[in-house]
Amino acid sequence: MNTLFEIKNLKKHYEVNKGLFAKPTIIKAVNDISFEVKKGEVFSIVGESGCGKSTTAKLLMTIEEPTSGEIFFEGKDITKFNKEELREYRKKVQIIFQDPYSSLNPRWKVGKIIAEPLKLNSDLSAKEIKTEVLAIMKKVGLEEDWYDRFPHQFSGGQRQRIGIARALILKPEVIICDEPVSALDVSIQAQVLNLLLDLQKEFNLTYIFISHDLGVVEHISDQITVMYFGDIVEANDVEGLFSNPQHDYTKQLLSAIPTIDF
Amino acid sequence: MLLEIKNLLTCFYSDDDVNRAVDTVSFSIPQGKTVCVVGESGSGKSITSLSIMGLIEKPGKIVSGEIIFEGIDLLKQSKKYLRSIRGDKIAMIFQEPMTSLNPSYTVGYQLDEVLRLHQKDLNKKERYERVIEGLELVAMPYPQEKYGEYPFKLSGGQRQRVMIAMAMMCEPKLLIADEPTTALDVTIQAQVLDLMRKLQREKGTSILFITHDLGVVAQMADEVVVMYRGHVVEKATAKELFTNPKHPYTKALLNSIPSPGKVQRKSKLDTVDENVDYLQFSKEIR
Ligand SMILES: Nc1ncnc2c1ncn2[C@@H]1O[C@H](COP(=O)(O)OP(=O)(O)O)[C@@H](O)[C@H]1O
Ligand SMILES: Nc1ncnc2c1ncn2[C@@H]1O[C@H](COP(=O)(O)OP(=O)(O)O)[C@@H](O)[C@H]1O
Ligand SMILES: [Mg+2]
Ligand SMILES: [Mg+2]
Q1: Residue B145 neighbours by CB under 8 Å, 6+ apart
Q2: How does DSSP assign B105-147, residue by residue?
Q3: Distance, CA B41 to ligand 4 centroid (Å)?
Q4: Does B182 score more than 60 pLDDT?
Q5: Does A109 have pLDDT greater than 60?
Q6: What is the C-alpha to C-alpha distance for residues B84 and B180, in angstroms, rounded to an integer?
């Protein structure tokens, strides 16, 4: 498999001012992490809240600029991209969020929400765009006549499908999934996981899958990276990580999962 | 039985509609045991617990049924009586701790107040020690410092731990915990669950534990009540439920969890079909 991402010594430190005369505190949200993501795999990042998962996602999405370090995508350092290169990159790498509601504009109809990236990034006609949107809606299990509905008219699971459709519309290579099923009931979670796995096969996607739910991660992943306070403490393939965890924190995390065994 | 709920019907009324949020639900909670109510969002779990606490407000109403606590039907008692057992014999931990902590008092003050009301024999110094103990029990970092902090200064998980400490310090007969660990990290969740079990062992507390997480159910429950669209579709001991579920809804729910060993990695998970009304299967089961 080809390497798609190569992340080297990536850091993101935030300076937080505590008052006029106090020295600012440095929050090391991501503190010198390195990893590689291969094309076509599900690469998961796990860890508890505040460990730096979303910050890592934002750095890969170029929503945030790194304090230092390099992010190579297909061999090129994205932190050195010019405007045009960034534009191309951002088409190839999409994101879906935990809370599909707050990430969907409540005043826009579903059709418009899904079409937006295509409008900004192609010169297709309105009619062509609508055809594409309807096709992708069908793919993710949204009915055609929901095109004119607003986000609040949908259940949590359906809203997550809208988010997935929007991420897919530009035919990306990579989707960063930041806690995509964390807000969903288990049964709905299962539907969304099934959909993500189907789409991955069909479109040959690479997923960077962020989650704190190790059950979900074990089901979907090829590779797993464990983060703890901004650091990577352990990285392994899924079998290795679950059968033979090395780091104390990983062990602690694994033993904390409420298991069902009778 | 410490608590018996019989045919509880709680409805919400709108202009042209009645929502039977809790629809003739019956189950009971034995002394010193944990009963878990599990179900998807909107299935009526929280409204069941609010009904027990006497906290249903318009447009909602408890229409009929009985809620018998220590032999007394709570639905026939005055507001004053209900107030007197809340936070004393029955304590509740809510999912969203911010709504139940008073933002204008410090954490320590609010915990101290519980003891002032319910443990009148303690003096000020003893109460302080008990509060710190309570905060240590729930693994609060820097308990002495946290004593003087206001709720908004704490993280969500820390606020939830304050709520748990508060509920446990009342030493209630019945602890109603509505998704108490849903917002917490797994390692903190594990600590909190341990803590609740410890309290139960030591004080003989009965726990009504509401959750949508079947892993948590497996860890906590002696008995399980499965709710679906306001109805109880299955009641069983935890072991029965997980080894031999009877209702199609329960089966679908259990099979939708990605559980290592049982389900092959990356294979299709079973799902609950949103277009099926699983209530139709209930008659055949009973
Ligand atoms: N814009 C910001 N300013 C200051 N601190 C931040 C900012 N964004 C995130 N952080 C901090 O960085 C750490 C990592 O956050 P995040 O990446 O969101 O964690 P996760 O997604 O793993 O829960 C946390 O301590 C968080 O409070
Ligand atoms: N304040 C309210 N007003 C109207 N309907 C409500 C209110 N609270 C709850 N409901 C309805 O009652 C039903 C059960 O809700 P709830 O008990 O909160 O579910 P959950 O199982 O997620 O805790 C739902 O249909 C919900 O919409
Ligand atoms: Mg995050
Ligand atoms: Mg609820």
Answers
A1: none
A2: S-HHHHHHHHHHHH-TT--HHHHHHHHHHHHHHTT-SSHHHHH
A3: 6
A4: yes
A5: yes
A6: 23
Global pTM value:
0.90
Angle between helices B186-203 and B156-169 (to 10 degrees): 0
Q: Nearest CA of chain B to the CA of A59: how many Å?
A: 24
Tell me the pairing of strands A76-77 and A68-73. antiparallel
What is residue A106's DSSP assignment?
A: T
Closest CA to A119 of A170, A81, A78: A170
Distances (CA, A) of A243 to A41, A238, A254, B120: 20, 8, 10, 53
The pair of structure tokens assigned to A234 is: 């352990």
- Report which residue type is found at B97: P
- H-helix or E-strand containing A199? helix A186-203
Percent of chain B with pLDDT over 70: 97
Strand (E) or helix (H) holding B60 = strand B60-69
**Residue A130 CB: number of other CB atoms within 10 A?**
16
Please spell the DSSP secondary structure of B175-233, one letter per residue: EEEESTTTTS-HHHHHHHHHHHHHHHHHH--EEEEEES-HHHHHHH-SEEEEEETTEEE
How far lies B63's CA from each of A201, B24, B202, B257, in Å?
Answer: 52, 10, 37, 35
Phi, psi values for residue B188, rounded to 5°: -70, -40
Chain B residues with beta carbon closer than 8 angstroms to that of A209: none
**B251: closest CA among B229, B228, B267, B283?**
B228
d(CA B232, CA B36): 12
The CA distances from residue A140 to A114, A134, A191, A221, in Å, are 12, 10, 10, 20
| Range scoring the smallest mean pLDDT among A18-27, A37-46, B212-221, B224-233 | A18-27
CB < 8 Å to B213, chain A: 186, 258
Distance CA A163, CA B92 (A): 36
pLDDT in tens, A130-171: 999 999 999 999 999 999 999 999 988 899 999 999 999 999
Task: Give ipTM to 2 decimals.
Answer: 0.86
Nearest CA to ligand 2 atom 6: B12
Strand B174-178 relative to strand A206-211: parallel, antiparallel, unpaired?
Answer: unpaired
- Cis preceding linkage at A117, omega within 30: no
Which has the closest alpha carbon to A217: A260, A173, A250, A248? A250
Distance from CA of A25 to the nearest CA of B (A): 17
Token pair belonging to B185: 């990290």
Please list, residue by residue across B88-124, b when 16 or more beta carbons sit within 10 angstroms of its beta carbon and e when fewer do. ebbbbbbbebeebbeeeebbbebbbbbbeebeeeeee
- Alpha helices, DSSP H only, in A122-155? 126-139
Report the alpha-carbon distance of residue B272 to residue B252 in Å, rounded: 5
Residue among B5, B41, B47 to mutate when testing ligand 2 (max atoms within 8 A of CB) = B47
